[in-house]
Amino acid sequence: MSGPGFKIMLEKIYQELTDTVRFSMNEKIDKERIEQALAGVINAFENNPYNDLLLYFYTNSKDNYIYGHIVNNVILSVAFATHLGLSKQEIQDTAFCAFGHDFGMKDYLEFFQKTSALTPQETQSIHQHPQKSAEMFKPYFHQRVLDGILDMHECVNGQGYPKGKTGGEISILAKIVSLCDVFEALTHQRAFRGEFNPYAAIKMLIMKKDIIFEKKILKKFVEFMSIYPVGSLVHINTGEIAIVIAANSAFPTRSILRVLMNTEKQAQPDGRVINLLNDHLVYINGTVEPKEEKALRAAFAISTGG
Question: Are β-strands 233-236 and 241-248 bridged in parallel, bridged antiparallel, or unpaired?
Answer without folding.
Answer: antiparallel
